[in-house]
Amino acid sequence: MRIPELLAPVGSMEHLKVAINAGASSVYLSGKDYGARKFAQNFTLDEINEAVNTAHLHNVKVYVTVNTLIKQDELEDVINYLAKLYSIGVDAVLIQDLGLVELINRHLPNLKIHASTQMTCENQLKLDYLESKGIKRVVFPREMRKDEIENLKTNMELEIFAHGALCYSYSGQCLMSSFKGGRSGNRGTCAQPCRQKYKVSGIKKEDYYLSPCDLSLFDKLKEIAELNISCIKIEGRMRNKEYLAIVISNYRKALNKLRSGKETKSEEINLVFNRGFVEGQFNNDSKRSLRSGHIGLKIGHVIDSHKNQIAIKIDDETKSIPQKGDGLLLIKNNKDYGFEISQNPLITTLNHFRKGKNKQIKDLTRKDKVLIVKKVWQNKKSNFNLNESTVFLTKKHDLIKKAHEIENKGNSYVKSKLTLTFSIKNKFPKLKGRLTLANKKGIECEVIGNTPFEKPLKKSVSQDTVKKQLSKVDNYPYQIIQINVNYDGTLFIPISKINELRRDLFKNIEYEITKSYSHDLKHITLKSNESEIRETDVNISFYTNNLKHLKNIEGVKRVYLEIPPEIDTLDINNDENYNLNYMINFLKEAFEISHSKDYELIWKWPDITHDKLIKALNKVKGILNKMHYNIPIMSNSFKGDYGPYSMNITNTETIDSLENYKILTVSPELSKIDYENIIKYCKNPNKLELIVQGSVELMKTRYSLLYGKEFKQVKKDSKFFLIDRNNNKYPIHKSISSQELILFNFEDISLLSQINHLKEIGYSNFAIDGRFRDDNYYEIVDIYKNALEGKLDKNSLLKYSTKNTLGNY
Fold first, then answer.
1. Is the pLDDT of residue 411 over 80?
2. What is this structure's pTM?
3. Please, which contacts does 624-631 make with residues 24 or more away whose CB atoms are closer than 8 Å?
4. In whole angstroms, what is the distance from residue 742 CA to residue 698 CA?
5. What single-letter DSSP state applies at residue 388?
6. Is the pLDDT confidence value at 159 over 70?
7. Cβ atoms 735, 742 nearer than 8 A
8. In CATH terms, is domain 539-697+748-805 a member of 3.20.20?
9. How far is CA 621 from CA 545, 637, 638, 693, in A?
10. What is the DSSP string of 299-318?
11. Cβ(445)–Cβ(433) under 8 Å?
């Protein structure tokens, strides 16, 4: 069984110290730019340099996140930023952008690349592709399940999230913040619209429908270790030092116990920021959070409250008993009330409480305990009856104290082994050191003092005295395993000079450690050759999952056909039994309709395709091939002919790297200047396609939207919408995957007014998304064809699309 690396989030130099002291094996951090947490404090280059040197001294690895999508005009800047990181000696960089992978391989081939979770590597095809690109580690999506991970085969290291916030959408596949408020998660500026309250059509209750509970796999560490996972990642660069200290120290303790086959429990991790815990998709466990903020540890429920007294029945398994200065949160029917305990509470038994004889008990391990809080510090009174409220312990004063102790008194998890040899050379003291780092690197140094030994006037310096002075490690994370003293103990030298000799050696060793990781800095200049604008045919593509569109549509080059769900519900079916007959018959009918048409019919696979679904889709493909139906595929699994916009293409390096694709759809998140820069330097502009009309997919999720009785409140044959506080209605549909819900934007992206400019600068492929639209939506094609001929008619567009936006254009 392999004990995985423990990877800690670091948002500042203070956090770095806490992470090292709490027992992290490695840390991940970001510079001021190109990181997916733009609003964390983050690090300047000088601070990254200091952080790397400090961490390496403590045998802790440093990974720097450069995991945003890179725009065309940023390529040279970012590759030179990466060159600086490489020269500093970072252990790896986390990358989302495929074009950046190409640049690193070309210019910085020895810089290790970890594929960020935003790459959405959920199947074997993607895993194989990333391995072929020299990537050393893959960070799986949080949506991966244990059995799926178990069945994957690769030589790359595998990393999973084990603790922290869960996004409702697959990371890298969420455009909601970008289209809702212009702040892109793929560019590090997510505004977290998922943490707001919404309504769902058919349900009156407003709730946190897009806000899952936080992830905790603390109780699954043995299962994780048995999966051959290389690293477990703790999320939380935006969270405070107490969170970091408590979570990392508890995971370190649990992993250490796992080495000897023992498992451990902890209530402490519930007492630092969390929205309630689930095991997430790892064990197919999901739940909506009760509130957007901290919940804490559930400890019981209120059995009585009046005036300034609250009686709480404590759950028998609870070990963290509230004290004066601790914080409590009471939640009931979507309402909550929080306060801090201002007097020492009384702890009695349920039996005593019922008899009105509230006697303090000494044995806090007893069952049926009742906590009586006499008085509270509060900002306002509760606006609901507190009886039967669920009670959570949100703050523990003792835990804050423990976190401070970790920050100020802790030490690194793995110490370097140091052997010292002391001798005299020409009367001058000489000290040699051999340090072995955790990565097995050996560092050797020696120093010679500038003060000679003399004959003693009174007392000589003994061998034991020399050994005693050399055994002090000061604040260095060294473990002295051997001290050799080649000296007979008959001479004299001031003790301060031995200490000085030791300190000089330690400084030299520290310098050599830093030097052993660093590299020469080189400046990289990228050659950018402008492409010539060539006259070419302008083509329109049409996305649909409606066979009636196929019968009537004309004047398009390509139709991307997606198989609609058999039943479009909000229910996520976890049995993954795919109806192959339904899929085959749908596609067969589509081919028969399209046989005499001028357009090319292309089968669009779902953007999220776990291996069980790929296996089913390949069976369908094989059967249809035997029936002599040739099926080009639109897929982002690196094995398709046509690439959807979920591939997050934002620069020409990414385009050039995907050389097998015939058509690639550029990201709809980009602006006008971004589109201009891409086409300006693209070697093969005829390969590019833009979405110019249609509802953009804002979220793709493997989490349920509704739970329990809520399903009975929505009509099965109705259309489903998520509704925000401005009454905007976001359509929700299921993909052919039983595992995936898709949330579409409430308004259509529409570049009708810009179509001729895009044509003039060199774009020749334009796509209209007609999935889940009315039977006559295909008629919108004529409006775009007329616009391309100079006959712009915005009013006609409103017949088919009443709400339109330029998006980020």
1. no
2. 0.95
3. 624/584, 624/587, 624/588, 624/591, 627/588, 629/587, 629/588, 629/591, 631/587, 631/603
4. 7
5. T
6. yes
7. yes
8. yes
9. 17, 15, 17, 29
10. EEEEEEEETTEEEEEEPTT-
11. yes
Cα–Cα distance measured from residue 249 to residue 22, given in angstroms and rounded to the nearest whole number: 5
User: Where in the chain is CATH 3.20.20.380?
Assistant: 5-166+214-271
**Burial (0-12, 13-18, 19+ Cβ within 10 Å), 464:** exposed
How far CA 753 is from CA of 666, 761, 791, in Å, comes to: 19, 15, 11
Ranges 67-76, 368-377, 528-537, 577-586: which has the least confidence: 528-537
pLDDT at residue 782 is higher than 80: yes
Contact of 326 with 340, CB cutoff 8 Å: yes
- Tokens coding 638: 């690196």
Residue 783: other Cβ atoms inside 10 A? 22
Q: Could you say which DSSP state residue 288 is in?
A: B
Rg of the Cα trace of the chain?
A: 31
Secondary structure, 3-state, 766-783: EEEECCCCCCCHHHHHHH
- Decide: 706 and 750 in contact? Cβ < 8 Å: no
**Cβ contacts of residue 200 below 8 Å, gap of 6+?**
209, 570, 705, 706, 710, 714, 720, 721, 722, 723
CA distance 779 to 553: 7
DSSP 454: B
- Give me the helices (H) in 166-293, please: 176-181, 221-226, 241-259
Kindly state the average pLDDT of the residues 505-518.
97
Output the CA–CA distances (angstroms, integers) from residue 747 to 168, 432, 540, 621, 734, in the order listed.
21, 71, 21, 34, 19
Identity of the amino acid at 223? E
Residue type, 607: D
CB of 18 within 8 A of CB of 55? no
Q: What average pLDDT does the segment 713-736 reach?
A: 92
Class of domain 5-166+214-271: alpha beta
Q: Locate 785 and state its tokens.
A: 């064809």
> How many angstroms separate the CA atoms of 759 and 332, rounded?
58
Query: Can you say how many angstroms the Cα of residue 115 is from the centroid of all Cα atoms in its chain?
Result: 11
615, burial (CB in 10 Å: exposed 0-12, middle 13-18, buried 19+): middle
Helix 241-259 vs helix 13-22: angle between axes, to the nearest 10 degrees? 20
The terminus-to-terminus CA distance of the chain in angstroms comes to: 51
Strands annotated E in 389-502:
390-395, 416-425, 428-436, 442-448, 478-486
Instruction: Judge contact between 124 and 615, C-beta under 8 A.
Output: no
pLDDT of residue 56: 97
Topology of domain 297-395, CATH? Elongation Factor Tu (Ef-tu); domain 3 (2.40.30)
Q: Let me know: does 178 contact 184? Beta carbons within 8 Å.
A: yes
What SS3 class is residue 699?
A: strand
